[in-house]
Automatic annotation (TrEMBL):
GO terms for molecular function: DNA binding. It comes from Shewanella piezotolerans (strain WP3 / JCM 13877). Residues 27-46 bind DNA. Residues 4-64 form the HTH tetR-type domain. The keyword DNA-binding applies. The lineage of its organism: Bacteria, Pseudomonadati, Pseudomonadota, Gammaproteobacteria, Alteromonadales. Keywords: DNA-binding. It holds the Pfam family TetR_N. This is Transcriptional regulator, TetR family.
Length: 190
């Protein structure tokens, strides 16, 4: 197994174990053993379990952001652009249930350091801040503090994805799909 394969095996195993057992109940030894690598190999790639958790969090958040940006549709109408981003993000969550479960458990958890969550919001997902700022400048969105707006958007996303992961058939129902976006949008507009 190459170094890259070993690192990926560690990440895949950590994701599965963190979701199924919890961060605190998952030892680095169990991650290494399940991944089929030596514990020393795990520590070669990640100095600590916290570093592994942070890397995994940012890596998955980047995957989500890349998916959203690769399918972005800049029609120039803020509400339509936001709805498209919302739908792409929830499609990603449904297509990646284990990764979304990880977000459900750890996005608001003290297991992820505040500066790591901040890096994800203002760095990786910076396009969301830009969209909100544009909406505020044009008077379409409420002029609340940006950091609070981003946290509110994130909370709405987590709530909607939790619902649709629990009820996957509802995401195909136009009424539920549109209602989820309307609730998100109405929380931000003026």
């Amino acid at each position: 197994m190459s170094k890259i394969d070993k690192k990926q095996a560690i990440l895949d195993t950590a994701l599965t174990l963190f979701v199924s057992q919890g961060f605190y109940a998952t030892s680095t030894a169990s991650i290494a053993k399940t991944a089929g690598v030596a514990t020393g190999t795990l520590f070669h790639h990640f100095a600590s379990k916290n570093e592994l958790m942070n890397y995994l969090f940012l890596n998955i958040k980047q995957e989500l952001a890349t998916e959203i940006q690769s399918k972005s549709s800049n029609k120039g109408e803020l509400q339509l652009d936001a709805e498209h981003l919302w739908n792409v993000a929830i499609d990603w969550a449904i297509a990646n249930p284990l990764k979304q479960e990880f977000f459900q458990q750890y996005s608001m958890s003290p297991s992820i350091a505040a500066e790591i969550r901040q890096q994800a919001m203002t760095g990786i997902l910076s396009f969301m801040g830009e969209l909100i700022t544009h909406g505020q400048k044009t008077g379409i969105l409420a002029n609340y503090p940006l950091s609070l707006m981003l946290e509110g958007c994130h909370g709405q996303y987590l709530a909607a994805t939790r619902y649709f992961l629990d009820h996957p058939d509802k995401w195909q129902d136009v009424t539920h799909k549109q209602a989820s976006f309307s609730m998100f949008w109405n929380a931000m507009k003026t």
